[in-house]
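Chain A, query sequence.
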Amino acid sequence: MVELKIRQPVKQQDHPDPAEIPPLAFGAMADSKPYPAKVEHQKAIGFPGELVDDWKERAIDKLGELVSQSRGLRVYLDTCVKCGACTDKCHYFLGTGDPNNMPVARQDLLRKVYRRYFTFAGKYFPWLVGAEDLTEEVLDEWYTYFHQCSQCRRCSVYCPYGIDTAEVSMAAREIMDSVGKGQKYCNEIIGKVHKFGNNLGLQEKAHRATLEDLEEDIEDETGVAVRLPLDEKGADILLVTPSADFFAEPHIDGLIGYAKVFHQAGASWTISSYASEAANFGLFIGSQENMRKMALRIHKAAKQLKVKRIIFGECGHAWRAAYNFMNTLAGPFDFLDQRYPIPQHICEYTYDLIQKGALNLDKSQNDHIRLTFHDSCNISRASRMGDKPGGQFEIPRAILRASCNHFYDMPEDTIREATFCCGGGGGLLTDELMDLRKKGAQPRMRALQQVADEHGVTHMAAICAICKTQFAKVMPEYGFEMDNIVSVHQMVSNAIILDGQIMDGDETEETDSSGNGADAGEM
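Chain A, predicted structure.
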């Protein structure tokens, strides 16, 4: 048997405050920046391959275009009164101490240029309003610090004017892309989705082989033939899920959980090899055109396969892009069954089945786990689930409580709408930013350590592919194991009892009753 390592509760222990304000460390992260996009990465998604000669004029024109098209962006750039409410709300500032990672300071990198070229005071009295010319040094500073924002929007919750730093960061990234100064990680992935339909560049043959292998694994585990269909026309449900679900732990276990839920519900469903990818990295770089192209792939796949519903898997920003923008970008979806949410989250689907008593969940199958839940930013602060406000907080927790006996929330000021980012979101989940990612994870890891010490929590669940990947990397830096992060539907998969499932001991009992499994002299 595998020896289970249970973290024992420790009472009355002092814990570092997750939101403790660090000493200021000016320029501490000035050298942290992602690799630049190659020429082919830029051109594949409609941007110049390298910094253009007239980059300054183009950048200013692009900024003017963005503020003219987005009333919100203009308000965000005009409104800040430097009240300081946001200064200690960014996980990257709390983890690094670099003042440029204060949300207000990061905004000001763009705001000072906006004021110089688009306000009366900035044009004629720039020194009075902190307006500055756009120079190559300023552009380099944008590239550094706007790639130290995960667009988590936590600062916006505390801003009395609701200034959305994520929108400012996305605008800055779009401006940089438009002049040929893009980031490799996001832009390469977007190009793969345009070409292959997923972030990894998986082609149909490899996709099908992966799903068939998972079918064999499930049947070996349960004795039940659970299907993971690909490109099946006439299925009721199209599942669109992050590509991590097809190749890495703990994501695969979540995909297995979806499949078991669909099987037990008797659902007709399929995955599309043309549009298997839920993630939409166009959101991270602020490019509506690239967001639209990826959303249109899903529309086309759904129509070609003649499905009635679209359900999204566990991915934070993918749910934000789908919930908020899919119909605007790629609609109408009037060919789908209008009786169901368009789109629907897999957690909404599973929760409905639990409420109806349609799933047999044995909580004791997860008794080796003492669990907490990480609220992913884009789900918590940029979308919702279900038909009631706050459903994005309550539905995942209800699923987890139905799947395990030992669930404990982290401190209230670190969860729900106040949740801390994992530290790897917003297009920053790349190895050259690992130092930033580790430091950005500090507030969440401190909150996890507190609930681990007080309640013996061993694992943390999440419903975001980026969060799960990030935590698997950084948890060992904070005294946890890589596999201490789990999928919500991994917990469901562990607990669900399928019709006809062979349980532990069933085979032994059947063998014993036939008289072939034990020596008659030992009976």
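Strands lie at 237-240, 269-271, 309-312, 344-345, 371-373, 459-462, 485-487. The mean pLDDT is 93.
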